[in-house]
Amino acid sequence: MRAKDLHDLGDLDTVDRTLVRLLRADARTPNSRLAEQAGIAPSTCVSRVRSLVDRGIITGFTAELDPAALGLTLQALISVGIRVGQRQAITRFADEVRALPEVVQLFFLGGSEDFIIHVAVRDSNDVRDFVVSNLSAHPAVASTRTSIVFDHHRKGPAVPE
Length: 161
Fold this sequence. Notes:
By secondary structure, the protein is α+β, with helices and mostly antiparallel strands. The chain has two domains: 3-54, Arc Repressor Mutant, subunit A (Orthogonal Bundle); 67-149, Lrp/AsnC effector binding domain/regulation of amino acid metabolism (RAM) domain (Alpha-Beta Plaits). It is 39% helix and 19% strand. It contains six helices and four strands, in the order H-H-H-H-E-H-E-E-H-E. It has helices spanning 3-10, 14-25, 31-38, 42-54, 90-98, 124-136; strands spanning 74-82, 103-108, 115-121, 141-149. The protein has a four-stranded antiparallel beta sheet, covered by helices on one side. Residues 1-8 have low confidence and may be disordered.
């Protein structure tokens, strides 16, 4: 998050916080309903949402997909350690991994591991193939550790009170 965004989060008033909370719950909520629930005119609502987007507080409106409904019944978190002396490869590695279709999320970490990769695949064979083909064979990768996700509960980002 950029310093500008941190400043802007502090500038959210009650109406902005209400709009963010409502859109986080359902980004398809019609403007008229958003305006009604926020206690503002529809034209004001359009302007306020546009301002939230322009300020970088709202970065997109996306559809959440159920991986299992798409045949991707197994999710895993794969910790990756980058080889000593390969630190210059971190950005390239992240770009390569992010482009892989199995990748749901990629986290760059501080600590004993450098990345956690969240993948959604059909089965354990696909996890193995992903690790072997994309990670173990990668010259920058020193180690991997795979954890299977049994259940996932998404809350969403915090909205300041």
